[in-house]
Each structure stands twice: as structure tokens, then as C-alpha cells.
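[audit] Reproducing an earlier prediction to check determinism. Same input, same settings, fresh worker. If the C-alpha cells differ from the archived copy the diff job will pick it up downstream; this log only records the rerun itself.
[audit] input (402 residues):
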Amino acid sequence: MQKRMTWKQFLFVLPLLLLVTTFSLYPIFTSGVYSLFDYQTNDQTRNAVYTGSKLNAPLLVEDGDYLLFYLRKDREIASPEAYAAIDALSADISAFLAPYEGHRQPIDLSEAGAEAVTAFLDDIEARITGLVSAYPELDLRVSAGLDNQIPEMRSTIVGSNFIGLAGYRQLFGDQRFFDDLRNTLIFTLVSVFFELIIGMGLALVMNRPMRGVGLVRTVSLIPWAIPTAVSALIWTYLYDGTSGIVARLFTQLGLIASPELLLTSYNGTMAAAIIADVWKTTPYMALLLLAGLQTIDQGLYEAASVDGSNAWSTFRRITLPLLKPSLLVALLFRTLDAFRVYDLIAVLTKGTPETLSIYAYKVMIGQGNYGYGSVIVLAMFLCVGLIAFLYVKVLGAELIND
């Protein structure tokens, strides 16, 4: 019978739960909320999550102050006959803006309130139009408000930007998303495959008792220790079409037709990104596998040698089965990391081939569309969850407990 956790035991776990909730679950929850709204920071009518009608009070007051500024300047050049109309207009605008001054955020607005604001703006626009028409010889500055401030003041009435699941329906029809998903999968599968093969060989070498094995282990970890952005810059020079040694070598071997194609064509940039990623993260894969190899009882290898087992048979029947827990961890970590790749491709090839992380960055940060960007991020989260599920199902759920 399994014992229940005591409250003292729970207190020890509580800090970890708070960290997971704050840094993992909360961002996911926030992205889920944003995905249900047409949230765009570059559009003042959708630059926040609005569940009902709102009034952008700060912008309303700002534009109203511009109208008052224009009227004060116009009074200096106006004739005495126009003073009364200008003063009355200024007084009405000031009285209208007074309740909204001091607000730093949009405020709730009822249907009646929206109608009142619209009616006031209609009246102000008509009065400014009449004033400008009555005194055409004065070239009143307030006429600029008809084209600028009045339309902006009308746009301060913001309706709800809740769209429900419309963003997800848009995702299913977004061909760019599926193209980027294909690019991400190709990059992930190919890079992790070569990292596993090379990392396994490197781990087997580092696990052998030989002179200088400590130096070999240290040197092999250098690529992994280099920051990703720095390693991407190093490979950028190696891939350079005019002076890069790797680009010229590939051209001489007939792998590419011209050195410039390595960083300018789809196949070239994909291959360049995979090679750079394999070079950098293979030591990490080897390190995880080496940790698993060192937990295997050496007596099993001695018994297999006595029985006459060859190297391949020993690897297949002893090493590989006992290495499954480490394989699960190494493949899971590397696959998820490769699937989320951003910095390597962003620095190395300036974003080509475009992956899902780069697409999400362009939509959210470049375009300011946090609503649809959150949909893309949640789709990536589901893909990551599916990858983790498949790994556990294929390699065995019981390995997690081991």
C-alpha cells in the first residue's frame, strides 16, 4: 500500500511546485488565454485583452488636448466675432475630458457610455467644421483635427477582441505553419540521428580504460561548452561564400555547385544548420550516454568474453538493452531541444530555413500579433508533448521509474 505524503514532506516539495507553476504552467496558461483573443500590440484597438467594450481614456485625453492646443492658437489670430465660438468649443471639450484625466489604462465602457462619447464627437466635429467654414480667411489650425484627432478619438472606443477558436481554425489553413513544421521535423530528425550515432561512438571510446581518456573527454566537450550564438558565428565564417573553407571544400567535392549556395539556398541552409548543430551538441549526447555506460556492471562484459561473444553481439545483447534508460533521456532531451531550435538558425542563416520557433518569433515580436503567435506556441507545445509521449511509449514507460 502506497503511503500518502505528509504535510512536512509536502513542504519540502512546495518550493519546486511553486517554481514549476511560475515558470512553466503560468506561461502556458497565459498563451492559452492570448490565443483566444485577437491581441495585437501594434493596433490600439486590440493592444490588450478586451472581454467587453473599453474606452482608451489616455489616448482620448491626449487627442483632446491637441484640439485644445489648436483652439488656443486660433484664438490668438481670430477676430472678436470668433472668440465666443472658440471659447465655447474649448470649454465643452475641457468639460468632456475632465472625468477621463488621470487614467493610465483603458476603462470599462457601457453601451450608453459609448453612445454618449460618439454623440459628443459628432457634435464637436460638426462645430469645428462650421467654425472653419465661417472663417476661411483665418486658416484655423483646428481644421487639422478633422483629419487627425477626431478619427483617433473615435477609435478610442474599443470593442471586445475575443475570437474564441478562430485562431486555431486559421492555423489549420496556414500553409506557412505546415511548411515550417516540415522544416523543423527534418532538422530535428536528421540532426538527432547523426548526434546519436556519433555520440554513441564517442561515448564508447571515452568509456574505454586507456591512457589520456580524461583529456579526450575534456576536449570532446569543448564544442558543447561554446555558446550557441558564438558557435553559429564561427560556422558563418566557415560557410562564407567568398572565404569560407567549408563552403569551398563542399564545392570541390561536388556537394554544391557554388560556395554562395551554402547560405543562400534551401538545401544549403538546411545542411549548414544541421552540420553546425551536430558539431555542437554531439558531445552533450555522448556525455549522457557515457553516464549510462558507466553504470553497467563490467562483470557482464567479462562473462560475455568468456562465452566467446564478439563485439557486435556484446553491444546488441548487453550494452544496448542496459543503456535504454540513458538513451531515453538523451534522445528526449536532444529531440525536444532540436525541435525548439531558434538561436542557431537565427544567427547562422538569418532565419532560413524557417522553423516553428522562428515563425512564432516573427509573428509575436516582429508583427506584434500575440494572439496568433500564442496559437503557434501552443501548437509547438502539443508537438513537444506528443514527442515525449512517443519516446516513453517506444522505449518503455517503466524506464522512467528506473
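[audit] rerun output stored. Observation attached for the diff report: The chain has a mean pLDDT of 88.
[audit] end
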